[in-house]
Amino acid sequence: SDVQHAKVHFVKVPPFGRAFSSGGTHKGSPQEKPDIPKLGQTSSKGTKNTMATGTTHKTISSKAKQSRERLKLSEEIQAGVSSTTASIKASKKKQKDPKNTVPDRDGKGDTSQRSHLKPDAEGAACGDIQLSIRSYLEACIFIGDVERAQRFLLSQHRVRSRRKLLNTGVYNIMMRVWAKKGILNQIGRIFILLEEAGLKPNLGSYSAALECMGRNPNCSPKTSTRSCLNQMEEDGLTLDDLFSDCVFRRDEKDMLLKAIRAVEPGYEPRPHPLTDECPSPLVHHFYTQREQHSYPKLALSQEELLERFQQQLSVERACTVTIDSVETAKPVTENMRKMRELLAEQRTHWEKILHQALRESKLILANTNTRDYRLNLYPYLCLLEDGEYVDIMIQGVANMPPSGESLKVLARDLGHRVYTKYCVRQKFENQAVEKLGSIYSAYTELLAKDTKVSRVLPREQWTRLQMEQSSGPSLQGDDTSWPHIVTLELGTHLVDIMVKNLKINSDILNPSQDRKLIPILYHMYTFRSTRQVGFIKPHPILVQMQQEAMETRLTFDSYVMPMLCPPVPWTSVKFGAYLLTPTKLMRTVEGATQHEQLLEKSQHLEPVFDSLNQLGNCAWKINKPLLDIIISIFNDRGSDKLDIPPPMSEAPKIPHFNPQDPAYTASQKALMKREVINAKKKGSEMHSLRMDALYKLSIAHHMREETFWFPHNMDFRGRTYPCPPYFNHLGSDVTRAMLVFAEGKPLGPKGLDWLKIHLVNLTGLKKRSSLQGRLEYANSIMEDILNSADNPLHGRKWWMNADEPWQALACCMEIARAARSSDPAKFVSHFPVHQDGSCNGLQHYAALGRDVIGATSVNLVPCDVPQDVYSGVAQQVEELRARDARDGLKIAQVLEGFISRKVVKQTVMTVVYGVTRYGGRLQIEKRLKEIENFPKEHIWDASHYLVRLVFNGLKEMFTGTREIQDWLTESARLISKCGHTVEWVTPLGLPIIQPYHRTRNQVLKSSIQHINLQISHDSKERPDTVKQKNAFPPNFIHSLDSTHMMLTALHCYSAGLTFVSVHDCFWTHALTVDTMNKVCREQFVALHSQPILQELSDFLLHKYCSGTLEVQMKRPEAPPSGSSHFPNISFFSLFVSGLKPKAKSIRSTGG
Amino acid sequence: MASSTMSSHLCGVLERMMRSSCCHVIRSRSCLGQAVLAPATSSVCVHGAPLLHRRAYSLDPLGPGRLSLAAGSQQPRSDRTPPSPSLTYRNLSAAAVKGQFRPLSRFDYLDLGKVEENIRRAQACKKRRHFIVNPDLANVVARHVAPDPQDTKSVIFECNPGPGVLTRTLLNAGAQRVVVLEGDRSFLHDLHELEGHLDGQLEVVYCDYFKLDPIGSGNVKPPTMFTDKLFTDLGMSEASWTDDIPVKVVGILPQRNERGMLLKMAYALFERLSVYRYGRIELNLFISEREYKKLVAQPGEMRYYRAFGVLWQMACDIELLHKEPWESFVVSSKQGVPSSKGMLPNDYLCLVRLRPRADLFSKGLTPSNASTLLMMIKQCLAKRKVKLIDRLNLWSPDSGSRLLSEMGLPEDILTGHVYPEEYLRLFQLMDKSQEFTQSWLYEEILENTQREGWA
């Protein structure tokens, strides 16, 4: 905001001159040294003179041609100074405000930086620090403290070691500020700084310069603008690049155009032609031949959609939502009422205290920071209104689990909340929200029921609309995401304020106690081995108050809720999902940036975007009757059997005893102590389960009358996930049962049968029966089914014994309704029927290895009845066990009669995803513990024994699998040994990189505690070979799995189906199950008709074994012989003709 | 002890002779072989072989003069020289206590075996361990651990003896009852053989002392074991804390997770769990110099004054018996000498005696409230540069000032400036006061069981 000051500080240049001469960033000749300090010297506190153009010239003359050209530009810009004096004067006047320790808010309009521009090659190496610098500068500018930003940039620039951390983008941030103010000479100076730092201006720099010229009525277009354009051209940048690659805020774009049109009248940016060509042959047809396509529509009118958009907008704008919990239904006791009053009273008091404490801490921070180059939290504490920080802190208290939270987690959450709010505010500041509204309303035309059918995909539609409405700000944000450490530091600071200031009277609950002011949160340590972990714990008094008050209002971050309108389609790596809330396309480890860099570089993510959009566009609603039943049990006493967590009143009482009481012997005390420990442990487990269920149910309850959507993103292997964390269709049986499609479709001729088969699948029975067998079974128990539907809680309760009881009950109800309707084929059903897509990784391995025996057991090859690999393995294990038992092996004898499909299933399923013997043993141990009459003392030995048998059994059954796994592992080992990270690209073009590196420690020093961060994703560290190698096979299979899902999603979309997925379990309407199965199979075959392993091998060889590397690294061997061949035609023809869909549900543990 | 000074002088000469001769010996393998075969030169060989494990300069408070036993023990068995006075002593006392005599033929010194062979066997061990193979080193250790002739009760537990050089040396030095706890099966056979040759002075158990009383679930089978099984098998029963030292443990603390082990043992001591149910078990352990420095760090050394040091200092008399360079030990892996990262020097393994104080559980500390003390110490020393009064007030608001004045400590004292004894007294005061027993600190202890912090 303060040009005067900014100038003054800019002018403190001598130090950077010194730094320059002491080493020199460019290989400059010595004679230019004395010139440099003279550069940019203007009066600082009345000591220095203004920069002379002549000096600049002198410097130029000693430079190489290229730099001369660039400096010429700054000179031209300098020349423009004369014509801009007026504006400077104007702004000077404005700046004459009193010394602004607290920045004036009106400066916040100048929040203009350009950060999306790709970091320069040398800049990319500085990763985290650079990110810190950028986010700091942006924060300073957002709060209007231009002076602080300028001072900071210069102090970085002056010292060579710190200057190395800067890149063009960082300088552009300042340039953008000056452009907004129309001060051309400041921009010129930054061009000089860039030159000094040995950096090239990029599109962002030129865009700022042009924008500034556009704003400047006195700027002479013929000279400065022209030379700017020339310079751009010499740097190989075109005007069209400017408009297609830069992100604009507010009216920047218009200013840019204005400046350009002054010299090139009639210039119109030509957008890059849309690249229709997707390199993957898998989707070539999908994009080019659309005549047959019929994309689904929503059952809502355009008007309704727009109304919902407005609702969603206001939710996201507030960043938090407060809803009634389902416990509201409970009667309010006298004590509850009293506690609620007490809490409310305290809260008001705490808010006041926090306000004051925050103000004080800001004052201290603003004044104490003496060194300009040090990052300071101050700007981060001014981004929002004080009240918003206070709300965030109060929310932190309210959500604190009774057993406390580790400082790191709490700090991260608080910091992240500030960041989210800041991003949302930025969008409003940039005036992007109105434009979002106008594009969204045009976009709804594509989805609404009352508009004409089109064969355009949501992403294409959105992109087209954006192009049509190209004036004004860009929608795509260019927010710099904060480095993890900044989020944590800010969060820790807030926690510190909370711990130090939030107090309560100790006699608040028990007046007989002495009155003392005691803190409600305390900081302490828990100890894990030799490590100590900082914890924030609520005082027992606070816990008691909160538990007794049973407050019925829940406050969530807005992104926790499903969306009330269809999500914004993903159109680029940085734009999609929620309307305002920042969302990452790819979920990553906190602070890992390599994925995003890779994504930004890749050209053909369209199929990935489209499939995510397709999943996100599925509309949902609540299965109300079922929700009511669940809530009634939840508000009663819960049920462990039905997975409804009981309330805390059901928790074991914590025994009280006085450890000093001499009446107890030492061993009695020890025993009681253990009892107390167990009771507490059980209590805290129950609490977290209960809260989790409370959140889910309350969200569902809040949504009971709505239609809603789950925006999707993916993990680094391409597996897709709904963004709202608690309540979504990926959840447990209970949550899944509460969800149905918003759109209903008639059952059609086979729909009812599919519902019945689906029900049998949910029970977990008849795993080895054919579909027909399952259907017959369902028909034979129709009475139980109807009874369950009619009288779920007091009838025969058949449904309660199913594997997935709640979904089974929901299915019973649907079957009952359909069966009783006059014409089941016309019965409109909203019910999702599940089909297992690619079953599991074993199928992929079997297909990759063209492994017929293995393929048979995972249903890739037709058989009369669906094969069940789990039963197969169980059978084999049982045979081996029987043999060992005959040979007299004790443990084998003990296990007689206990080996079942269930015992081995999870282990078999996860083996392909890389479960180790260790993990496998734990899984089996868990299963054995569930068997009631299995002797507990043998569990350990039995689990050891069984995991060995399972592993051996699998090795025999899937030989090809083994070979491929070994090849993958070995390749990864070689790659990693050479210091590279394993990367590959899925057949659909999604780039994947494994973020496993050696751990580096980073210490965050804050006043409350030092936090040690172990960073294992830093790409500058050497790769962690063990992890790279062990994780490659499962990650690779996951990436194939996700590719298959995406392909299925796309093709289901073109067939007009409703489709969602839970990884490899696919959902659709009963009517369309057959179509979906067909698509699923076709896409599986299509995927595996690609030479996947060959392409992987080529990719790896090309990437890691070219040139010099070849010397260092042994070429990965060619993939195993069987698998590198092109598809064996007969193999696949068998597959296509004969495969029966293996209809089975997978448990929620699947991930 | 005139004889000892004389023999020490003699020994010094002897050793110098051997050192010079060893150079010749090493040059030729065949020569070495001969030397091994020839009984007369075997002592030379013992000193000569170990380029690998030659004892470097060592800091021994007892001085190098006490090598009398070394000289003695080198006597080959066949060579029936008259036993030295100390040896006679051993036999007499053995006879006196046990009321039985070893057969005459076994009266001789136990042969320590060929050094080269011992080294080979130690190095063949699959786990990463350090071994005492050098007879001189074994002698030094034995001298420190072997009981006074008067002390006839205490048993020596030798942890992970490997080829058994120290075992034999201990027996030679007159130990009445040695229990070796060997965690590696490969050494068991020879140890059992030795056990068979002796007459009850040596018991061999397949057990890893440092894996006693595991916390996790799973089958407990040797070498993992529960203390009560071990002691019951050995026919030892629980003893009062104030009784004499029943067991002296000698061994090398595994380098992996030294601090975790020390913490675990300190917790067990304060709560009288694990071996400490059987009385005041004295540890004589080689620990790395770095951990030793932390163990005995004094208030004010803010970097190293840690909870585990405070606890050990509170509970035990700590005595540094001997410092020996890493190179003197045989290691069963390539990286024998730890990297010397960090600020503290780490050139030695330190033989440290940790003898629990008999009066630890007087004046209010009991094994059942000890867990609160542990928690208090850990909370206080998680950060050393915070004011003690703040910690105290956190546990019980407004009582810090009163407690400090009762203790006679300044108001602004930092947690890193408080002596272990002062912490103990502070705890005793707190434990008596009503306010603190109601504090969450007590709750916390119950939650964070004594096991938390175990390795």
TrEMBL record, chain A:
It is found in: Mitochondrion. Keywords: DNA-directed RNA polymerase, Mitochondrion, Nucleotidyltransferase, Transcription, Transferase, Transit peptide. Residues 1-121 are annotated as: Disordered. SMART domains: RPOL_N. Residues 40-64 have a biased composition (Polar residues). Gene3D superfamilies: 1.10.287.280, 5' to 3' exonuclease, C-terminal subdomain (1.10.150.20), DNA-directed RNA polymerase, N-terminal domain (1.10.1320.10), Tetratricopeptide repeat domain (1.25.40.10). Its main location: mitochondrion. Residues 310-617 form the DNA-directed RNA polymerase N-terminal domain. The keyword Nucleotidyltransferase applies. InterPro entries: DNA-dir_Rpol_C_phage-type, DNA-dir_Rpol_phage-type, DNA/RNA_pol_sf, PPR_rpt, RNA_POL_N_sf, RPOL_N, TPR-like_helical_dom_sf. GO terms for biological process: mitochondrial transcription. Residues 1-10 have a biased composition (Basic residues). DNA-dependent RNA polymerase catalyzes the transcription of DNA into RNA using the four ribonucleoside triphosphates as substrates. DNA-dependent RNA polymerase catalyzes the transcription of mitochondrial DNA into RNA using the four ribonucleoside triphosphates as substrates. Component of the mitochondrial transcription initiation complex, composed at least of TFB2M, TFAM and POLRMT that is required for basal transcription of mitochondrial DNA. In this complex, TFAM recruits POLRMT to a specific promoter whereas TFB2M induces structural changes in POLRMT to enable promoter opening and trapping of the DNA non-template strand. Has DNA primase activity. Homodimer. Component of the mitochondrial transcription initiation complex, composed at least of TFB2M, TFAM and POLRMT. In this complex TFAM recruits POLRMT to the promoter whereas TFB2M induces structural changes in POLRMT to enable promoter opening and trapping of the DNA non-template strand. Upon metabolic stress, forms a complex composed of FOXO3, SIRT3 and mitochondrial RNA polymerase POLRMT; the complex is recruited to mtDNA in a SIRT3-dependent manner. Also forms a complex composed of FOXO3, SIRT3, TFAM and POLRMT. This is DNA-directed RNA polymerase. It comes from Oryzias sinensis.
TrEMBL record, chain B:
S-adenosyl-L-methionine binds at H130, I132, E182, D208. The keyword ATP-binding does not apply. It catalyses: adenosine in rRNA + S-adenosyl-L-methionine = N(6)-methyladenosine in rRNA + S-adenosyl-L-homocysteine + H(+). It comes from the Eukaryota. SMART domains: rADc. It is found in: Mitochondrion. Homodimer. Component of the mitochondrial transcription initiation complex, composed at least of TFB2M, TFAM and POLRMT. In this complex TFAM recruits POLRMT to the promoter whereas TFB2M induces structural changes in POLRMT to enable promoter opening and trapping of the DNA non-template strand. Interacts with mitochondrial RNA polymerase POLRMT. Interacts with TFAM. This is rRNA adenine N(6)-methyltransferase.
